[in-house]
Amino acid sequence: MLSIHRGSVLAALIVIAGATQVQAQTQVAGLPVASAPIMASGDARAPYAWTDFCKRKPSECLVNAAEPEQVEMTAKLWKTMVALNGRANREIEAVTDQDHWGVVDRWDIPEDGKGDCEDYVLLKRKRLAEAGVPRRAMRVTVVIDEENAGHAVLMVRTDRGDYILDNKRNAILPWNQTGYVYVKRESQMQTGWTSLGGLATATVASVR
């Protein structure tokens, strides 16, 4: 279970107006429709369980500033993202950290085939990195979901905008079509986290 303080975030909401009817998977020349990137707004405290994960697996948390901040969205990359996202969602059995590890919050790569939202994220990031996607262009991101609960997703930053890989759906959506409130993500400049200011998005796509 991802634990975050929601009150201060909700007080800082900035509602972003979006199109009322957008098909998230509509493609132009085989690519997803472009969207505006999300902008960071300052430093943020890393989740405790992330810090613990980085102590155990430091190579998973390093930022290589020589890598690009975003990746070119090609038909090949899009196909790889869709395939890896769907496969991880099918492979991993969703269980709470309490049931899995006997603790409230623990982040790990789900090598035993079980995990919760942040474990899905870490697995997807690992597999995409193995497929050649720069780690610096993939950011673990904390949001508030439709149930007003903390949730983790993987943001892939591309030249066509920022796209969200999520264990709640197989469809990969532009960040501003998820209906989530964006709290913070890994920093691209250093080993740390950056605030996303509590940006809220309207749900304009309901696809799985």
From TrEMBL:
Residue ranges crossing the lipid bilayer per the database entry: none
UniProt-listed Pfam families: Peptidase_C93
InterPro entries named in the record: Transglutaminase-like_Cys_pept (IPR010319)
Keyword annotations of the record: Signal
Signal peptide (UniProt feature, chain positions): 1-24
Official protein name in the record: Transglutaminase
